[in-house]
Each structure stands twice: as structure tokens, then as C-alpha cells.
């Protein structure tokens, strides 16, 4: 039978995962304008090379494997492994939620927003130095239009860095203090 603490940990993780999915699917990003001369948002559109589900799989599997193998060779029991994995997954989901909150709140335009996705160059035809405070994205693909406004900060780099730092700090702590 599962203890109350284990049930609580699982429930918290599930709730956090649901929150991240709701933010990802239904969060409405802040709508900001753009400067016509801003070359950082006029790149051509390129599809994502590494899908987020693939990155999340790798970012979860590598640290999990590192924890399991390290704890096995240190002779730790299941509780130690379970505790370390709970810490890791809690932090990973929390990091992902923070990324989604920031992306939604800031509404930073992606590098391919103006030319690659929104086709909004016509707003700059009269005055190439103007600031366009409101514009309509003429793409027709709602997912791309929504994603065009969610650049800052990178979800891919955040997930990868969290996983890498967790493994590094875990291994340093484990080998330095518990050898």
C-alpha cells in the first residue's frame, strides 16, 4: 500500500503536468508589436528539428538512468532512488511550467514571425522605420500563429539545461559527500 506522502507526490506531479498541458494548449500569449527594421524577427520559417516530446524523453531518461545506476552502485535502496527521481521530475515539470508562463506573459516574437509565419511585411510598406503596434497574422494555421508569439525563453534549452545541471550537481554531490 502506498503511503500518504507517495500519493501526495504523485498527485502533485500529475496536477503540475495537467497545468503545463493546459498552459501549452490554451494559454493566450501577450500580443506585442514590432519594429519594421527589426531583422531578428524576419527570418524564413523552418520547422522544428527536434520535437519537444523527443527532447523531453531524452531529458527525462538520461538523468533517470544516471540516478538509478549511481544509486545501484552505492548500494542504496529503492527509497533513495525514488526520492531522487521525484526531486528531478518535480523540478523538470516546474521548469517547463515556468517556461510556458514566461512565453505566454512576454509574448516575444519568434525569429520567423514576420516573414516566415505571419506575412506581415505589408504593414511596413509605407514607412520602413515605423513601429507596428497591432497586426493580424495572415497565416491561417492557428497553432503556428500562436507559436509565433512565444519565443522567450527557449523551452528546448531550458529543459536540456535543467536535466544537464541536475545530473552534474547530483553526481558531484553523490560522489563528493557520499562515497
UniProtKB/TrEMBL annotation:
One GO CC annotation: plasma membrane
Entry's Gene Ontology BP terms: phospholipid dephosphorylation; phospholipid metabolic process; signal transduction
Residues in Phosphatidic acid phosphatase type 2/haloperoxidase domain copies: 88-177
Main localization (coarse): membrane
Record keywords: Membrane, Transmembrane, Transmembrane helix
Its membrane topology: Multi-pass membrane protein
GO molecular function: phosphatidate phosphatase activity
Family per record: Belongs to the PA-phosphatase related phosphoesterase family.
This protein's name: Phosphatidic acid phosphatase type 2/haloperoxidase domain-containing protein
Organism: Medioppia subpectinata
Amino acid at each position: 500500500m502506498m503511503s500518504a506522502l507517495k500519493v501526495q507526490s504523485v498527485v502533485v506531479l500529475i496536477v503540475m503536468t495537467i497545468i503545463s498541458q493546459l498552459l501549452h494548449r490554451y494559454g493566450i500569449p501577450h500580443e506585442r508589436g514590432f519594429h519594421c527594421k527589426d531583422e531578428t524577427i524576419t527570418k524564413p520559417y523552418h520547422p522544428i528539428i527536434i520535437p519537444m516530446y523527443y527532447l523531453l524523453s531524452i531529458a527525462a531518461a538520461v538523468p533517470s538512468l544516471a540516478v538509478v545506476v549511481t544509486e545501484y552502485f552505492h548500494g542504496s535502496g529503492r527509497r533513495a532512488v525514488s526520492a531522487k527521481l521525484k526531486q528531478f521530475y518535480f523540478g523538470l515539470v516546474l521548469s517547463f511550467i515556468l517556461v510556458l508562463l514566461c512565453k505566454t506573459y512576454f509574448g516575444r516574437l519568434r525569429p520567423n514571425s514576420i516573414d516566415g509565419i505571419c506575412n506581415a511585411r505589408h504593414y511596413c510598406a509605407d514607412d520602413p522605420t515605423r513601429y507596428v503596434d497591432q497586426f493580424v497574422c495572415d497565416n491561417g494555421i492557428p497553432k503556428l500563429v500562436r507559436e509565433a508569439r512565444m519565443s522567450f525563453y527557449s523551452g528546448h534549452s531550458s529543459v536540456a539545461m535543467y536535466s544537464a545541471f541536475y545530473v552534474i550537481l547530483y553526481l558531484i554531490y553523490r560522489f563528493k559527500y557520499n562515497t
